[in-house]
Design a protein that fits this description.
Blueprint lengths: L14 E3 L5 E3 L4 E2 L6 H11 L3 H7 L4 E7 L5 H16 L7 E8 L5 H8 L6 H9 L7 E7 L2 E7 L2 H4 L11 E5 L14 H10 E9 L4 H10 L2 E6 L6 E6 L24 E5 L3 H12 L3 E5 L15 E3 L8 H23 L6 E2 L3 E4 L3 H12 L8 E3 L1 H8 L7 E4 L3 E3 L1 H14 L3 E3 L4 E6 L4 E5 L4 E4 L1 E4 L17 E11 L10 E4 L1 E3 L8 E5 L3 E2 L8 H14 L16 E8 L6 E6 L1 H7 L3 H6 L9 E9 L5 H17 L7 H7 L3 H8 L6
Parallel strand pairs: 4-5, 4-8, 5-7, 8-9, 12-13, 12-24, 13-20, 16-26, 24-32
Antiparallel strand pairs: 1-2, 2-3, 6-7, 9-11, 10-11, 14-19, 15-19, 16-18, 17-18, 21-22, 22-23, 25-28, 25-29, 25-30, 26-27, 27-28, 31-32
């Protein structure tokens, strides 16, 4: 799916509620669940129909994957989580620890509709409250929400577009299917041969499905796809329903092997993370949540000494007028980051922040045109809305001289506090930290990676994750990656009588943050010096930061309070790529890629077999976050750790391919250009 001609946003469900509070779809003229007892129906058809409790007892992996067509009110999900928690409580030492629930919904409920639908089921009040608290933006695609031991991947949009986005990675990874949705007579577009064939490809051997319908077209379609189908007694007044199994084994057929995501091999419990910033923090968090042993190697005496150490940083999605795929990634990442940061608040991890939005100033005609083009993409208003000068001034709390746009859910936080206090919390959770450890060599041995520091000390780990910013390329294994350092100097200025009224982050050809919580200072940033890793103070860059805001917003009275004379600033070096997207995944092997894929152009043209791209086993990286690390790091870390462990990924295949570390090399090879 290219998404170029697909709708960006989803339409919400059009509902009415019966006298017994059963939701009825006006789009499909059908009820969402049985009027007799929707919860009993869900348990009978989907939980018992897939024999989940017995299968969990016999499961021999740390995670179990369920996929569902039609999230609806979430009743199937709630019932499944409740049952899984009962299983975990009764079997605390069982190998099965985590549940993944992948659900597709073309017309999602609004939070208000969910609230009403859930009134009938007070036993799910906690789950319902969390779903409403972190309910995704109305953007089509995958949104991951966490419910303790269960991860919900809520895919908004048409299942015909979204199911293929599970991609090659999810082949033979799904354990059970809840084949829900409205009756085939009401929703024939969903109940298709394409759906059944994809279900079969994504299912493990031994995977099961269950559905409330017994329609002959559905039975024949599932049988034609390869499932063994049986009829069972239906729920309540329904005479029959269908259940079945994938009893045959099929070969994986990877359509895009050069971007195939590589999971770890062998033992995976002992993880080393090299770095000390926001990427390392969230990678460590994701590993610890899964019970892994994690050691952090940081060359500095404490965390957040480089690019993650600014006093204030903005958090908002980087929307683009010319690259909708990149914009979608940042929208998903923004929603996920807000979810995890809220969890940090609840865990009493302290860091300053303010969430009164981000104002983007149309300080010249080109920027105004760009904002209008973004608006034409029809983002949800809580993610992006155009504003005139008066609206933008009111929302930002300060006089502005131009129109612009506003991101209502955006804001700022204190990165250094987040990272340092976050690591302190993770140490209490079992993270081992080795400061003043500059790792200079990575050497593979029989089953592990050997790390050697600058003093010659050696350490061994099953898996290594490189999250050390622009220094990722310091090792021979990563030296050929097309990454470069970007020096950035952020100026710190005192507040003033007018400046202290600023409520939102202000973006122009730079940015200005609201005053910190003590109401003493603001940050102006940042310079952008490509291919420069020097971290000494620059008087010239200090003046450039001031000049940008004075020139872009000239005429505003409060500009007289911009005072850089104290020369207070912080310098960090970021890591970037030309494509404005991070890199995430297994570290690709340059020499083997150049040799193995030297004839990739012709192999593809002739439709000959193509092997997966070569990687270094159990060596991973997360980098090139640029100036958007606060927004992107949480989702990237979750995706990386899931890839390492072979768990479902919270991003669609098109975005995963765009994040792949070998993407620049592959683009050349696909054009017939050799790597040198």
């Amino acid at each position: 799916m290219t998404n170029k001609n697909k709708p960006l946003t989803t339409d919400f469900a059009q509902l009415k509620f019966n006298l017994d509070n059963t939701p009825v779809s006006l789009q499909f003229d059908d009820i969402y669940f049985s009027v007799q007892d929707g919860l009993a129906e869900s348990r009978y058809v989907f939980l018992q129909g897939n024999n989940l409790l017995q299968r969990w007892q016999q499961h021999r992996q740390p995670h179990f994957v369920i996929a569902e067509s039609g999230f609806g009110s979430g009743l199937n999900f709630f019932a499944c989580v409740q049952l899984f928690r009962q299983f975990r409580q009764q079997n605390p030492n069982h190998l099965l620890q985590r549940l993944y629930f992948i659900s597709f919904e073309k017309y999602p409920f609004t939070p208000q509709q969910l609230q009403q639908a859930h009134r009938t089921y007070p036993e799910f009040a906690e789950l319902s409250a969390r779903l409403q608290q972190h309910y995704p933006f109305a953007v089509n695609g995958c949104h991951r929400l966490h419910f303790g031991e269960t991860a919900l991947d809520l895919w908004f949009g048409d299942i015909r577009d979204n199911l293929p986005q599970l991609g090659d990675y999810m082949l033979q990874k799904i354990d059970a299917w809840f084949l829900d949705g409205f009756a085939p007579s009401k929703n024939p577009q969903m109940w298709s041969d394409e759906l059944y064939q994809l279900m079969f490809r994504y299912s493990k051997t031994g995977a099961t499905f269950a559905t409330f319908t017994a329609a002959s077209a559905v039975r024949k379609g599932l049988e034609a796809a390869g499932f063994t189908v049986v009829k069972q007694k239906g729920f309540a007044h329904k005479r029959e329903m269908l259940c079945g199994t994938k009893s045959t084994h099929d070969e994986k057929q990877n359509k895009i092997p050069w971007y195939q995501a590589q999971s770890a091999v062998g033992e995976v419990n002992n993880i080393a993370i090299i770095g000390g910033g926001v990427a390392s923090l969230f990678t460590a968090l994701c590993c610890l949540k899964r019970g892994l042993n994690v050691t952090l190697y940081c060359e500095d005496p404490q965390p957040a000494m480089n690019a993650s150490g600014n006093k204030q940083g903005a958090l908002y999605p980087q929307l683009s007028d010319d690259d909708l795929r990149n914009s979608r990634f940042y929208a998903y990442a923004f929603g996920y980051a807000k979810q995890l940061l809220q969890d940090f608040f609840e865990q009493k991890i302290e860091f300053e922040s303010g969430w009164q939005g981000v104002a983007i100033c149309a300080y010249n005609c080109k920027v105004k045109q760009k904002l209008e083009q973004i608006s034409a993409q029809q983002w949800p208003t809580d993610l992006f809305q155009l504003c005139d000068q008066n609206q933008l001034s009111r929302l930002s709390g300060i006089e502005l001289n131009c129109d612009g746009a506003f991101i209502a859910k955006g804001g700022w936080l204190a990165p250094q506090q987040l990272v340092q206090n976050g690591f302190a919390y993770l140490q209490k959770c079992g993270l081992k930290v080795r400061f003043n450890q500059a790792i200079t060599e990575l050497n593979p041995n029989a089953n592990n990676w050997q790390l050697i520091n600058s003093q010659g000390d050696k350490f061994e780990h099953n898996i290594v994750v490189l999250a050390n910013g622009y220094q990722i390329t310091q090792f021979p294994q990563t030296a050929k990656l097309p990454l470069y350092p970007v020096r950035g100097q952020v100026s710190q200025i005192p507040t003033g009588e007018q400046l202290k009224n600023l409520k939102s982050v202000l973006c122009f050809d730079g940015y200005l943050t609201p005053a910190d919580l003590p109401q003493k200072s603001h940050c102006i940033g940042a310079s952008h010096m490509r291919n420069c890793a020097d971290r000494t103070f620059s008087l010239e860059e200090q003046q450039q930061n001031a000049d940008k805001i004075l020139q872009n917003l000239q005429g505003c009275n409060w500009l007289t309070e911009i005072d850089i004379s104290a020369n207070r600033a912080r310098i960090g070096v970021r890591c970037s790529t030309r494509e404005r997207l991070p890199i995430m995944g297994a570290v690709p092997h340059f020499e083997q890629t150049a040799e193995q894929y030297r004839n990739l152009f012709n192999l593809r043209r002739r439709r000959q077999p193509i092997p997966p791209a070569p990687y270094y086993p159990n060596l991973y990286l997360l980098g090139a976050l640029g100036s958007r690390g606060l927004t992107s790091a949480p989702l990237l870390a979750e995706t990386l750790v899931c890839q390492m462990l072979g768990e479902p990924l919270p991003l669609g295949e098109d975005i995963l391919h765009a994040l792949n570390p070998n993407r620049t090399w592959i683009r050349k090879l696909l054009k017939g250009t050799p790597l040198t």
